[in-house]
Design goal:
heterodimer, A: alpha/beta, Rossmann fold, 2 domains, B: alpha/beta, Pyruvate-ferredoxin Oxidoreductase, domain 3, 7-stranded mixed sheet, 6-stranded mixed sheet, 17 helices, binds thiamine diphosphate, binds iron/sulfur cluster
Chain lengths: 355, 475
Amino acid sequence: MAKELIKGNEAVVKAALLAGCQSFYGYPITPASEIAHAGALFFPRLGRTFLQAESEIASINMVYGAAAAGERTMTASSSPGISLKQEGMSYLAGAELPCLIVDVMRGGPGLGNIAPEQSDYNQIVKGGGHGSYELIVLAPNSAQEMADFTRLAFDLADKWRNPVVLLTDGYIGQMMEPVEFGESVGKLPRKEWSLTEGFNMDENLVSSIFLDTDELEAHNAHLQAKYRKIEAEEIRYEAYQCDDAELVLMGFGIVSRILRSVVDRARDEGLKIGLLRPKTLWPFPKDAIREVAGTANKILTVELNFGQMVDDVRLALNGSIPVEFYGRQGGNVPTVEEVYEVAKTHLSAAADVSA
Amino acid sequence: MPKKLVLERPKGFYEKFERKPGDKSNTHYCPGCGHGVIHKLIAEAIEDLGIQDRVIMVSPVGCSVFVYYYFKTGNIQVAHGRAPAVATALKRANPKAIVVSYQGDGDLAAIGGNNILQAANRGEHITVFFVNNAIYGMTGGQMAPTTLPGMKTTTTPYGRDEDNEGPPMKVSELLATLDGPTYIERTAVWDNKSIAKTRMAIRKALQCQMDGKGFSMVETLAACPSGWKVDPKNQYEWMLENMQPFFPLGVKKDIRDERESWHRTPRDNSAEEVSEALDLNVPDPKLFPSEYKKDSYRNPSIKLAGFGGQGILSAGAMLANSAMEQGYHSSWIPSYGPEMRGGTAYCFVNISDQEIGSPTVSHPDVLMAFNRPSLEKFEADVKTGGLLMYDSTIIDVEPTRTDIEVLAVPATKIADGLGNTRMANTVMTGAYLAQTGILSREAMEQTIPKALKRKNLVDANYLALKAGMEFVENQ
Ligand SMILES: Cc1ncc(C[n+]2csc(CCOP(=O)(O)OP(=O)(O)O)c2C)c(N)n1
Ligand code: SF4
């Protein structure tokens, strides 16, 4: 198959168009702007919609409209812009509208900086908007996965009638790697519930309002039941060298690439270190974590923040083995050597515990 | 039996309001509320224009949040103020639909102010029915941007004070100053005559969209007796007395005759059309073999560093691209954020027969230094036993390390000899190829045309590549 050396951010756009995405509603922000640039270049070539909206608030609401019309649709932004989209994301989840939202995370809080961070984990995975809802969250760690997960995102969004977030960082977005794109999807089936001109629209209502308390409770129960099904069916992760690992490293996105090098290095030195990388941050691979905890004495979570995903790791394990954290922040990305040294100290400590 | 006279509902309404809890025949509006009158005029227009099956009504947040109880059309309920943004996308996805955004003055003029402004300015092919009742009805009679001076509301208990809250906002006049919109009129529903005018305006606005003539809006002054705390019996006098002076009725803009008719038919793209548009019709990689000069040259991580403008990033991209052509895993990442400051631009390239972990490393196997600061800054990082290449034309110091292989390449001088200084990066790349044998000249030659923006430089770069290789081969 033919491959293209391409930036992750641009791969998202090509994959989206191959997945049948009909519209892109964006607002520029570094380091997500290349997605908008590529969108502006390619969507019109196919007669599809690219629109630079007046704000992130407008663009997420445009996505709400396009999704209600039954289109595959997307938007892309970075942390401060994502904060603005939160109300819209809550509405999308409440009205059960499928769409793709890309978050190329940058440094915060406030204006922060444009360097890579992973401190949107909480606002995306824990639902930064109001209400009890879940977004399906995919965490790619290569340009190839930027493409593959974009396609997967549209499929999952339609399958579950739920917004999906591609949670990535400036590093994965800027990096060029060979990508194999695959075929374009054929004609997609019409969504029965959507507002599509010519198809009995007067029977359909897209809404998230349930004035009656019992009705809203029932709607939420329905959403929760859906979320439990998604948890049962859609968890994805990668376990690398975990079978005999005494220390398991956990991280997502760019960090998982660094951790992979740390594991390779450790194995060269005969140290039993493995890597567990969630590909879906929600649903979270709790069972896989519990499984590695059967052999491992300790887990070390590494993130580009002050500890967000680590809370979920700790919840999954409920104290069964120690969970440690190492993080860098402000746009600093730890080196392989740096993490390796930290991992080694935890490995010896882990051995002490088991001895 | 005498025929019973039944007042028929316009076909724009559902026969029974099934979505409404409790009473399914009457609306939820207070007695005397302007929304009810305006709803009826819209429903009649929908019926008379024969567009019932094409309309999508956008319900806002406000007392009219339940528009979807009543209109037998496509229905969507949206966030406070965002109806014009939602309508924008509904219309673009459904060019044949008639998309109607129904909004109150808090929704449209306060929280959604920018959304209406921008949708109007883009000339979106939507119709907006804007109900100006000078107050927030739903939330308990607070001040709206349209609240009149001195008017008492729950958030202006002493009366709207223009020094504190500013004067009432004249939205129609404001939007009419924009070039984008086509038709804007302000009407009222306080007597039969004004209602008749509103009826006409609503039809004109919908017709405007049906004809593909662009953005249309009717602002209608309407009563909110509950919010105003005015007896419905006196509400119309109240409006004439208080609202009319501030909000002059009439057409604010109408350029329907000047506008070309817009029509858009969504396109289905064939698979071939998509690959073509995405530039994906590229040949499969050729998988040229490598002829390593040394085993330690395998799976290198390479740092290329120099001044911005020396072609550092593109030389790196060419290497990563050629590696891909030869079937390797490869990655390219530019220097990021704070690293970009201080006179050196650099990038990392990894080439490997294994999956690549970290795309950056602290100790690269190969350093290609194109200027003195890069050499001085990064020489110490090169892995023991690694390879350091530097442009000896530009860099007037010599590397000091003895535990690494050092190759001085007069890249700039060679490039100058070929007539273009800026090809020093390609010369250096050629030297790297010849030194290591990792990538074939053929793979690199396939990559050069793809990497160069200026196609007239392709042949010259082939020569530069060759010259760089020959420099090493002739050593
Ligand atoms: C983000 C947000 N802020 C505030 C509200 C509360 N709210 C609901 S309706 C409304 C005002 C509506 O007034 P208007 O648009 O004038 O409509 P009316 O009720 O007068 O018809 C407000 C502030 C909300 N629902 N969402
Ligand atoms: S509060 Fe005012 S706007 Fe709302 S229904 Fe009553 S009269 Fe109408």
